[in-house]
Amino acid sequence: MLGRRLAGNDMLLLTTRGRLTGELHTVPLLYLRDGDRLLVIASYGGRDRHPEWYLNLLADSSVTARVGNRTLAMTARTVSSAERAGWWPTVVKAYGDYAVYQERTDREIPIVALEPAASGRTDSGP
Fold first, then answer.
1. 16: burial class by Cβ within 10 Å (0-12, 13-18, 19+)?
2. Of 47, 105, 109, 120, which is least surrounded by CB within 10 A?
3. What is d(CA 27, CA 46) in angstroms, rounded to the nearest whole number?
């Protein structure tokens, strides 16, 4: 896989199902690892609206994450406010621009936990 790292951080390819089209959409994202969970940030560069991939996973939490040469079946959920407060300093330490992005917008930038789905590993999309 090309481009596994950006700004010193690991990247994954997240595939969601379009909430309007039903088509699969894949986006590259920085991520943090928490045991078998992967955390991604719905920053959208600090825009005042959520990125499309985030809106898609709110409609259908079944996603896949391509990490290196592995494709993982995952279930996505937005972390609680308490979890986010605990993770935010680590997120900003990993990539300082997230703090800048948060300052640009009134929305609270979501942190999304990708947790292994019951099936675990897959070779296809969600």
1. buried
2. 120
3. 17
- Picking from 24, 98, 38, 25, the residue whose alpha carbon sits closest to that of residue 67 is 38
What's the confidence (pLDDT) of residue 8?
A: 59
Is pLDDT at 5 greater than 50 in this prediction?
no
Cα of 87 vs its chain's centroid, Å? 14
Q: What is the pLDDT of residues 56-93, one digit of tens each?
A: 999 999 999 999 899 999 999 999 999 999 999 999 99
Burial class (CB in 10 A: 0-12, 13-18, 19+), 76: buried
Alpha carbons 47 and 22: distance in angstroms, whole number = 25
* Torsion from C-alpha of 89, 112, 107, 94, nearest 10 degrees: 30
Give the residue-averaged pLDDT of 20-40.
96
Give the integer Cα–Cα distance in Å for 40 and 34: 11
Task: Count CB atoms within 10 A of the CB of residue 63.
Answer: 25
